[in-house]
Amino acid sequence: MDKRTFLKTSGLMVAGSLLPQLQARQGPRKNWAGNYTYKAKELSTAGRTGAIQTTIRSTDKVKALGSRHSFNNIADTSGMQISLEKQTNAVLDKDLFLVDVDAGVAYGRLAPYLHQRGFAVHNLASLPHISIAGACATGTHGSGSKLGNLSTAVTGLELVSGDNNITRLSRDKDGEQFNGVVVALGALGVVTKVTLQVEKAFEVRQDLYQNLSFSQLEKNLDEIFASGYSVSLFTDWQKGQASQVWIKRRLDQEVRDLGSEFFGAKRATRKLHPLTDHPSENCTDQMGIAGPWYERLPHFKMDFTPSSGEELQAEYFVPRNRAYEAIRAIEELRDQITPHLFISELRTIAADHLWLSPCYQRDSLAIHFTWKPHEAEVRKLLPVIEEKLAPFEARPHWAKLFHMSYSRFKVLYEKLPDFQRLMRYYDPAGKFRNEYLERNLIGS
Residue 286: how many CB atoms within 10 A of its CB? Predict the structure, then answer.
């Protein structure tokens, strides 16, 4: 970061007026899944930082809107939303192994840009369609026992704060404060750029196994999840097993033949969707066929763009050293869960030092629920699930559905008082506060 924090003179430049373009709400605007209707009165399609500053200066309440893949009201406001979709520039520094990315860039756009130049990011989420800034701001993750969430690749960012100043922060320069601003839930301002650490491009193969007994996890959980660079287990909780095991391995690391059986699970004989009876053509290539990192680490292809989620999502992070107990605890709820569930996914993520990360200072197992669009029933289930997971100090994914609120977050996040001080410093007038932040981080 000594050479520079942000590059400004090359790459795919985006033209645009310094004056924001405003759109009154024409009919309801919804999130990707369709379960939430935004209440914001107007939408600004500001394309440049100067226009974003103009918008922030002219309104009392404002919020950045990314790719709309949140399942709750984290990106909503009583005032104006700022769409970042026109911010699409990316600039790679091959010498420093850094890429500067505008806030509107999605991983699905950045990945081929990097790969064509011989580079990669360390991990990707299961869907490549999400925006980089939004994913990093919420602690979104991929899978891998030795891999931190997507936010851990952030080495710098540019922020337009509540007092309309442009602030540039970096891991090297700002130290512990930087750990507080990366996963910030949009509470400190509008992030307009992020700088990501990159590495040399690599290839990945993906092997699938079926019907892994949960009994294998009691003694072998760490070994099972360490069997690949990224490993996912899928279950409907009904048969005491993971119906599928997805093992993604880098070809530049040791790759041995896993055999026809994997801890008692049988090697799949055909390509599979996580829901075994669903068509698999939209899933990334499996059956051990090698391919570029960005065509294997996500579960779904980049050229498959879902128009609507038609699903709900919730996810909870528990300490990895208590993962087996937590899995068995959720299994006790199987008959309540299954009627409303598409599938659950189990993944591991390495600990980090980002204050509001669900993996803050602890290696974690994420228990993910992809629900049918039964919102009333799912919302009744969430406090039941959270009560089951309370002994494990489970932390929810910030961008998905959860029931717990401030009183619980005060216990789960020791750095919350420090983050509240950052909120007052960067947003003294409370322009970026909304119902979500008031409930979860402020307690009012």
Answer: 19
